[in-house]
Design brief:
Distance between the termini: 5 Å
Order of helices and strands: EHEEEEEEEHE
Mean pLDDT: 95
Radius of gyration: 12 Å
Number of domains: 1
Number of strands: 9
Helix content: 10-25%
C-alpha cells in the first residue's frame, strides 16, 4: 500500500464518485477503499468524502475526519492514509 498525499487523495475522490449527496457538506461519496492509520488503530473506509473545509470524513456515523491541510503538514493525529 502507498501513503497518499493530499493531492492524490483529492484526485481519487474526484475520479470515484459513487453517490451524490448534500450531507456533511460534501458533494458526493467516494467508494474507493482507503486505510487511515492513527496513533493507536487502523481503520478501513469504503465510503468517504471531502467537505468544503478540506476535511476527509471517513466515518459518517461518528463524524470521524482528518483535516487534510494538517495531514499534509504532518500536524495531524493521522499518521497516514493509504491505498493501492
Amino acid at each position: 500500500m502507498k501513503r497518499l498525499t493530499k493531492d492524490e487523495i483529492k484526485e481519487i475522490y474526484q475520479k470515484n464518485i459513487c453517490k451524490k449527496t448534500k450531507d456533511y457538506d460534501i458533494t458526493h461519496y467516494c467508494c474507493y477503499p482507503i486505510v487511515i492509520e492513527d496513533e493507536d488503530n487502523i481503520y478501513v473506509s469504503k465510503k468517504w468524502g471531502i467537505n468544503s473545509e478540506g476535511e476527509l470524513i471517513y466515518n459518517f456515523k461518528k463524524n470521524w475526519f482528518v483535516n487534510l491541510k494538517m495531514y499534509e503538514e504532518n500536524k495531524s493525529f493521522c499518521k497516514g492514509i493509504y491505498s493501492k
